[in-house]
Specification:
By secondary structure, the chain is mainly alpha-helical. It has one domain: Up-down Bundle (Butyryl-CoA Dehydrogenase, subunit A, domain 3). The protein is 71% helix and 0% strand. The longest helix is centred in the N-terminal third of the chain and has 20 residues, at 2-21. The protein is elongated. Bound molecules: flavin-adenine dinucleotide. Flavin-adenine dinucleotide is lined by residues 41, 44-45, 47-48, 50-51, 54.
């Protein structure tokens, strides 16, 4: 759960940070665009978020068979 929850929080925070700074935020004059690209990978590099969600859903639903 932490894997996809934190990855989405990081992405949301960075997205808002970029939006607040406008063009400056997405330019290479600030670190935010680089961070956004790096943190976007967090939804992929430990396994795709969808795979983690699916695995958790199976664990929860097996109790209701
Ligand atoms: C920056 C970075 C660093 C990495 N470092 C390492 C490392 O150190 N060691 C290592 O072993 N690997 C590493 N990887 C590889 C990483 O583990 C894989 O990229 C990851 O497991 C996803 O596999 P894939 O890229 O082949 O995507 P795929 O498996 O092809 O998936 C592509 C997309 O299909 C969808 N998808 C796939 N499976 C499902 C499913 N079951 N249900 C629903 N949707 C699905 C998702 O949207 C997913 O994003 C790294 C990747 C990145 C980007």
């Amino acid at each position: 759960m932490i894997q996809f929850y934190c990855a989405n929080v990081m992405q949301s925070v960075l997205d808002r940070g970029i939006q607040v700074h406008g063009t400056l935020g997405i330019s290479d004059d600030m670190i935010s665009a680089t961070w956004f690209r790096l943190e976007r990978s967090a939804r992929i590099y430990d396994g795709a978020g969808e795979v983690h969600k699916s695995s958790i859903a199976k664990q929860i639903l097996k109790n209701y068979r």
